[in-house]
Amino acid sequence: MLAVTRNRLTLAVAAALISTALPVLAQDGPQAPSQPPAPSAPAARQDPVELDKLVVTGTRVQGRSPTQSLSPVDVFRPADLEKQASADFTDQLANIAPSFNTQRFPIADGTAFVRPANLRNLPPDQTLVLINGKRRHRSALVNLQVEPFGTVNQGSQAVDYSLIPSAAIQRVEVLRDGSSAQYGSDAIAGVINVLLNDYDDGVRIDGQYGSTYEGDGDKWRSSVNFGTPLSDGGFFNMTFEYFDSDHTSRGIPRADAAQVGAFVGSNLVPFEGLGQRWGDPDGEGLRTFFNAEYPLNDAVSLYGFGSYADTEYESSFFYRTPVGVPGVGPRGTLFVDSDGDGAADAVEQSIVDNIRAQGLNPADFLTADATSPSGFIALNPIYTLFPGGYTPTFGATIEDYEGVFGAKGETGAGLRWDVSLRQGENQMVYTMTNSINPSLGRLSPTRFKPGNLTQLERGANADFVYPWQNNVFATPVNVAFGAEWREETYKIAAGDPASWANGPTGVLFGIGSDGFQGDSPEATGNFSQYSRGAYIDVETDVVERWTVGVAGRYEDSSAFDSTFDWKASTRFAFTDAFAMRATVNTGFRTPTPGQLNTLDVTTTADSSGALVPLGTFPVNSPAAIALGAQPLNAEESFAYSAGMVWTPTDAFSMTLDYYNIEVDDRIALQTITIEPGSPEQQALIDAGVPGAELLGQVSYFVNGFDSTVQGVDLVATYRSDFGAWGSGVFDFRHSYNKQEVDKVATVPGTGAPVIDAERVADLENQLPNNRSVLTFDWRSPWNMNFTARANYYDSWEDFTFGEKGEFGSEWLFDLAVTFSLYQDKLHITVGGNNIFDNYPDKETNSTLNFLGAQYPLSSPFGFNGGEWYVKASYEF
């Protein structure tokens, strides 16, 4: 499938290159000799100074710089993102912003493809993501991570950063401050605002190829960005980006896989004898963005921007052991021994009778055995397909689009206005190969489409800004106000029948596609909720050196109580070079329809390495209600920060900010172990839950705990002129973040904690407390640029399967050299990430070692080792 898509995407990119390049080349030809040479838009894009002058995030006052803002704002240039080995914006931003972290979780369902990311160690959906100042829609994926895949992001549903191509970005602004009063739900940790290219001339074509030092994980990325004028003062800018990344493998053979390989031959064991693969997935896709503005007159403009992405990924699941290997217990999907005598004769007679009563052949579901009283044993007849065992391959096709269209302008009285409509949709179609529905016996297919998830969002905004002239304050009072309506719809479509069917032997072997059970018709539906909000945001200089801002927002949700949130900010400049700033705010996040209605049955491992069916059910489902689930409430926060700004010269600036964020009623997954014959199992059976007898664990969402995150952020930048040796920029950023769980809710009637001690330990210790990024960017006068970066990751801990792992700190170093040729139009970059090939400490958990993981899955910088790349860019 990936190969077919690769050809289609390559043709699409080639067509885009031809269709966009020809008009520009024609402008440079004899037909238009009087036109002046087009300015090099990409060269302007890389200017290290101009892009840092003004910010638009966190303030609605025009002309604020990062050091003048009331809240801390980081500004990152596209060159910072693009001079990296990864083609994923998630990795690119995490590599340069120490307050932003991401991890790589293989064998973790959709989380292996849509990677969660944390700002200030808070979950992904507590950071609001904007594109050109407008809310970005979420992914359809709800993170249902359980051990051993880390639980810091468990339960979140957030934006898929990987669908944003770096070639489309003009700059990224990261507001490190709670801003729900200004922007609405989700802005508890902060706001990430991606500003798209608005160049109206020029074309830039990029091609990049790289690989790991181990020789796997090959990455190819190609893009084209072009701009053209629209009317007088308007523009249309378009970006196409294609990527293709191969998988990596850093595991060792599982203990049981090695034993099977020694008996049947390692060539019959999946993944060349490993059993399962720990590493990055295979990925391929096309990502596009456009940005446009069309002036109707001097006072009114129409604008629009949007995106489309089509990507595919493949990864593996846990290894399933085969039948007939001495000393290795076979996977229960192939063989069941209910009474320990080597055959399931106590159970299978009724199964055989039931199969015959349906007019079916028992030999299609059980294996004949003359020694058994029924003539059959509980051995799945499809076992002969897997002499070395099987490992399900899990994949996803992600199709995503968004469109935002509006009008903006300014009246003669100075009132700026902006009205817009938006719609975005993210659809995930899952696939499974090399698996079976064990309840269907030899009639089972080995390929499935377990389901289709869709997140659809619509919104309407009306925003106004008026500079109220007065004789009271030192500057006009900037009064911003507006209203927003938004709707979220979560759709679950059924998988193919074989992926969820409960066949004749389901009570023995399990039902549905093994590894990831498909969604049945009973689980499907469209689930919606909407909200309406209004805000006011006032900011002014009370006196020449004292700036004050106050914001308030009222929001009403169809599914939750209404809320009012506020924010107060101040900044006082003691001198032209030194200022203090502080903020205090409240925030909120409403649970999404996906969190309220997701239904998922997958497979996890227990502390012995055995595979356990895990069912996650909607909070209002019969299964969850039978186990005591209660309706969810919105998460709420209270935060404050205080900091200093020091700019002694035009060449040097430093900011230092302390923050503290308290979040109550945080959403968590409560997981209950279902023992055979237990009251919990009987409650599920009484509720009519399909396959209740086979579920080993059941989860549902609860308001599980309260937490506090506090920390310090330091940003220092120095621009140096080396005279005849060119110029350089030194950029140092450090982020300290520490999370503590203040209170854990208890299960009604039992008093047991909703989240266990291992989850608490992961929340407090799994992400590094300290991270630093030091970057030096040197521009020589000899058509050569040099970028060096050092990334520091503090030590961290991981609590999994009852064992605590401790992993030491690490420094990673990146290097890139760019040569500019042909009148500064051709740029060749040779670079590497983690050039000294550093790895995290080895995994010490006995269960994970048995499963073949030699490096910690929770590593904040992954475990692929060093990577190199070569990149070529051409501008015309």
TrEMBL record:
Keywords: Cell outer membrane, Membrane, Receptor, Signal, TonB box, Transmembrane, Transmembrane beta strand, Transport. Residues 1-26 form the signal peptide. Residues 28-47 are annotated as: Disordered. It comes from Lysobacter stagni. Belongs to the TonB-dependent receptor family. This is TonB-dependent receptor. It is a multi-pass membrane protein. Residues 69-191 form the TonB-dependent receptor plug domain. Residues 363-835 form the TonB-dependent receptor-like beta-barrel domain. Its main location: membrane. It is found in: Cell outer membrane. InterPro entries: Beta-barrel_TonB, Beta-barrel_TonB_sf, Plug_dom, Plug_dom_sf, TonB-dep_rcpt-like. SUPFAM superfamilies: Porins.
